[in-house]
Each structure stands twice: as structure tokens, then as C-alpha cells.
Write a structure and sequence with these properties.
Layout: H1 16-23, E1 25-32, H2 39-54, H3 61-74, E2 81-83, H4 85-96, E3 98-101, E4 104-109, E5 112-118, H5 123-127, E6 134-138, E7 141-142, H6 150-157, E8 164-171, E9 176-183, E10 185-188, E11 192-197, E12 202-207, H7 214-227, E13 232-236, E14 243-244, H8 245-255, E15 261-267, E16 272-276, E17 287-292, H9 299-309, E18 314-317, E19 325-331, E20 337-346, H10 361-365, H11 367-374, E21 390-392, E22 398-400, E23 409-410, H12 419-425, H13 429-441, H14 443-446, H15 451-460, H16 462-474, H17 485-500, H18 503-510, H19 515-522
Parallel strand pairs: 1-14, 1-19, 12-13, 13-17, 17-18, 18-23
Antiparallel strand pairs: 2-20, 3-10, 4-5, 5-6, 6-7, 6-8, 8-9, 11-12, 15-16, 15-20, 19-20, 21-22
Helix pairs in contact: 7-8, 8-9, 13-17, 15-17, 17-18
């Protein structure tokens, strides 16, 4: 069961800031955590005991301890973090690449739980649930007209692997109510959104994070594209905040030739580990493009740095986030854990791409807004890195360290007449929720259309634009929407395609106006 009651994406792998901080770039192998008994620890334990025994009011000392741990880690670096017991399972599910549930995306539509999509191959899909179904009861508990919180709904629908979920469902298309028994099971959380051909010779693979299942998903996609005769590949790492180190290395290995360096790590003792490519690469001699932006971090930067420093491919986009610290997950014995920075990583040329954090967490977290203010996201000339941080690729090209990967080919955000703001608006839940409600009015007819027929219908019937415009204005937006009509209709079609079809259809549509793809096609 999805824990979000909005549609895209399934997990806010959206939440990019959280993905960068929580996902980061870390080893998945936790080690027992131990701290040497010393005066400071004795003092802290004594204080907690005194609060429990003597303080005038009842206090949740667990919350105090959690706060203390967070405050300690905040003094170290921005990516050493604490994961509380309540957060741990969800975080682990994201990185494992699956969760146990019934497997649906849903909205609360007029205080009724409406299925947006059953996840392909998941328990609800196998049990026959369809988009548009309303779940009225779960385990004989009424869900409609109850103003239930999202957590309450999730708690009713989740359960152990193999357990039964008894639901009463109303299907609008047949005007019938029926009971269905769903066997809860593992629901995959894809980290590879799509692997498609975007023209006769070019493959495109989009990765949203680096989890346990990422490399098998990537390999399956790449092998499929190779069987279709691709001559070049676009690997899209935009908005990818990182994750596990191992799949990033495995993917880089598929692009590099034997013994080419992928990454170097250096720990507290100065021990250096150099990871080199094997002889098993699947895609070592064809044209390669890597797409990055300001939210591509950590493991994404490992791949981009390895490709750039070995002069293996072309990095396209905007300067990446700048995270060059390695975390290890360590368990605290009560269901919680810390991810502690234990090493730094360096690209093959020897550069650290970690941006400075000595001025404090607030300044560190303001980096993206500072890039907006400086104009860096709109002009490559606004990128300023120290000349002292120059390095050379294997082919002798100059590259820079000290704050992310600077692309070989810069592609700015669209800033003409607020086009970037329109694009962001059209990808929000405000629009996706509206589209779901509109689809419900004519679902049976729309589901009979191909994606091409659907797009023609929306472009040719002014009702679709005018109704959306009225909805956005009623929501308080003050944009001159007529000025952006062409773009709005394009992204409106994209949302209809996303909800009615699959991810492949969505990406086939959306990349038609993707500035980075357009740039590559012109090269």
C-alpha cells in the first residue's frame, strides 16, 4: 500500500532533499555500534536518570535521547544522520526496493478511497482491482465519509506477508459493489523508471535512486535495448539523490574498460581503496550520454565522475549537488540506526566533489537557492569554482573539484516568460489530482484510446485547456495561463498518459520536449 495519497511519484524519491540526506551514498552493511564509556557518556546517562526519577513532570526520555543524538550528529557533517525506530522500516523498504502491502496508488476522492492504479504485478493487480475502483471497507472498517488520516488507512491495509486483506469495493464502470480478498505480498518499488528506445539508434534509461534492485533492473533494461540494436545510450540521473554505492559501481563497470578506475575512497586512517572496472562491461564502446542536474547527488555523481574522468562519454545538464562523503549504517540496538560518515570518495582523477559545509548546516542547505540567485542554473558562466581545484581527465581535459560535477555540455533551466515555473506547476499534485477527477468522468471512453489518439483529443478540444485554466485560477494561481497554453497542454497530456498508461508511454511523451534530449539530438 502506498503511503502517499497523491500520485506521482510513488515515493518522493520527491522529496529530493530527503533522498540526498537519507539516501545519500552509503554502505548497506551495518556494523554493531559501540561508544567508549567516558566521563561525557556517564554524565549524559546520569542526567537522563535524574530527569526520569526527579523531574516534576512526566517526560518522554526516549524523545530527549533522539533529540540528543540528532544534535550530536548535526555537529559532524550534513550527511551523518539518525534514523528513528518509527522511520527505520520505511527507509529500509525504499532501499530494499520493495515493501509488503496490497500494492495500489490511491487518492482520497470526496472522502472516498479511490484506486488510481494497482501497481503492475502486485497483489491488488493480481486480485483484479482496477483504476477507478473505490475501496469502501477494509476488514469491515468503513473507509468512506470518515475523514481518516493517511496513516490510519495505511494501518488498515498493511499487514504481514501472506496475510489476507478483506475489502469491499465499488466499481463505477459497472455500478456494482463486490467483496475481494487480497493476499498481501512483496510489492516492487522500481528504481529504474523506464528503459526505452527514443529513436532508431538511441536507448534511454531513467534511474530514480540506487537501491538493492537497481543493477538487476538496469541490466535487464540495457540488455533489452542492446537486443533492439541501439548504437548509443542516454542514462538519466537527474533528480537522483543517490543510495547504495554497489549498484553505482556495477553500472559504471558496464561502461568502462578493464582496469579503468571507477572511484577511490579514503577513510579516517588514510587507507585508500581504488575500485577498477572488470572485463565484463556490457556497453564499453558505444556512444554514451549522462544527464545530471542540481539534484543529482552521491552515487549519481560517482557514475558521472567516472565517465567524465575516463573520457568515456558526455555529461549533459547542470552542475550536480556535490556530495562526496561515504556513510555506513550502524544499528543502535533498539530498532533505530545512524548513518555515520566514515570516508570520502574521489573521482578517478583524484578530485573530491563534496561542496563545503564548514559554514554550518543552514548555509549548506541554502546552496540550491544560492544557485538560483547567482544565475548559475540559467548560465554556465555563473559557475565559479576555485582554479586551485583543477584536475585532468585521462585525455588531458581540465575538470574541477570542490562542489559537484560540472557538465561537459550545459543545458539551462527554461526561464523565458516563466516557463520553468509552468513546468514545475504541471508536475504537482494540484494538477495530477485534477486530472484523476477528470479521467473519472470519461474513463471508459479514454481507456479505449491509444496515446496518440488521446493527445489529439486533448489538443483539439479547447474544453481540456479551458477547464484546467479555470481549476488553476480557482486554486489561486495568478499566472497568465493563455501565454503558456502550448506548454500547459503538452504537460496536461503527459499527466493523462501517465495515469492511463504506463511509465514507458509517459517517458515516450515527455522526452519530446526535454531540453537535454533535444540538445543531444542536435549534437
Amino acid at each position: 500500500m502506498s503511503k502517499k495519497n497523491y500520485l506521482w511519484p510513488l515515493l518522493t524519491m520527491g522529496s529530493l532533499a530527503a533522498g540526498i540526506v537519507l539516501g545519500g551514498f552509503f554502505s548497506k552493511n551495518g556494523l554493531p555500534f559501540s561508544v567508549k564509556e567516558d566521563r561525557g557518556r556517564v554524565k549524559l546517562n546520569k542526567l537522563i536518570d535524574l530527569i526520569e526519577q526527579e523531574y516534576v513532570d512526566n517526560v518522554n526520555t526516549d524523545s530527549i535521547i533522539d533529540m540528543t543524538v540528532n544534535n550530536i550528529l548535526a555537529q559532524l557533517d550534513p550527511h551523518s544522520i539518525y534514523i528513528s525506530k518509527s522511520e527505520f522500516d520505511e527507509v529500509q523498504n525504499v532501499m530494499k526496493g520493495s515493501f509488503v502491502g496490497i500494492g495500489i496508488n490511491y487518492y482520497m476522492l470526496n472522502d472516498t478511497l479511490a484506486v488510481v492504479k494497482p501497481l503492475p504485478g502486485g497483489p491488488s493487480d493480481k486480485a483484479g482491482l482496477k483504476a477507478g475502483d473505490r475501496i469502501l471497507y477494509a476488514e469491515k472498517v468503513q473507509l468512506f465519509d470518515q475523514k481518516l488520516s493517511n496513516d490510519s488507512i495505511v494501518n488498515l491495509l498493511k499487514g504481514s506477508n501472506g496475510s489476507k486483506a478483506l475489502l469491499k469495493v465499488y466499481r463505477k464502470s459497472t455500478n456494482k459493489t463486490f467483496n475481494v480478498e487480497i493476499i498481501r505480498g512483496e510489492v516492487p518499488l522500481k528504481s529504474v523508471d523506464t528503459a526505452i528506445k527514443i529513436d532508431e539508434k538511441t536507448g534511454y534509461i531513467k534511474i530514480n535512486r540506487f537501491a538493492e534492485t537497481t543493477y538487476p533492473e538496469f541490466k535487464t533494461g540495457l540488455e533489452s535495448l542492446l537486443s533492439q540494436g541501439i548504437e548509443e545510450l542516454v542514462l538519466d540521473l537527474r533528480e537522483n539523490g543517490g543510495g547504495y554505492m554497489e549498484p553505482a559501481i556495477q553500472i559504471a563497470d558496464d561502461f568502462l574498460k578493464t582496469n579503468e578506475v571507477i572511484v577511490k575512497t579514503v577513510n579516517k586512517k588514510g587507507n585508500v581503496k581504488v575500485t577498477k572496472a572488470s572485463s565484463k562491461g556490457l556497453f564499453t564502446d558505444k556512444k554514451l550520454y549522462i544527464l545530471i542536474n542540481e539534484n543529482s547527488a552521491s552515487a549519481s555523481e560517482i557514475i558521472a565522475g567516472a565517465i567524465q574522468d575516463n573520457d568515456r562519454g558526455i555529461i549533459v545538464g547542470r552542475r550536480s549537488y556535490g556530495k562526496g562523503l561515504v556513510q555506513r549504517e550502524m544499528y543502535l540496538g533498539d530498532g533505530s540506526a545512524v548513518r555515520l560518515t566514515t570516508a570520502r570518495y574521489y573521482t578517478p582523477s583524484g578530485r573530491s566533489i563534496q561542496k563545503p559545509y564548514t559554514n554550518g548546516l543552514d548555509e549548506y542547505n541554502s546552496d540550491l537557492s544560492n544557485r538560483f540567485k547567482s544565475g548559475e542554473l540559467y548560465s554556465k558562466d555563473s559557475i565559479h569554482l576555485a582554479d586551485s581545484l583543477k584536475f585532468k581527465t585521462t585525455g588531458g581535459r581540465i575538470v574541477f573539484g570542490g562542489g559537484g560535477i560540472v557538465p561537459d555540455v550545459f543545458v539551462p533551466l527554461k526561464n523565458k516568460h516563466g516557463e520553468d515555473a509552468i513546468q514545475l506547476l504541471m508536475k504537482t499534485s494540484l494538477v495530477s489530482y485534477y486530472v484523476f477527477e477528470e479521467i473519472e468522468k470519461e474513463r471508459a471512453a479514454l481507456e479505449q484510446l491509444t496515446a496518440t489518439e488521446l493527445s489529439e483529443k486533448i489538443y483539439n478540444d479547447p474544453k481540456y485547456f479551458n477547464d484546467l485554466k479555470a481549476h488553476l485560477k480557482a486554486s489561486g494561481l495568478t499566472f497568465n495561463l493563455d501565454r503558456h497554453k502550448k506548454n500547459i497542454i503538452f504537460y496536461l497530456v503527459a499527466e493523462y498518459v501517465h495515469q492511463l498508461y504506463d511509465d514507458n508511454a509517459y517517458y515516450h511523451w515527455i522526452i519530446q520536449q526535454d531540453p537535454m534530449i533535444v540538445k543531444i539530438e542536435s549534437m
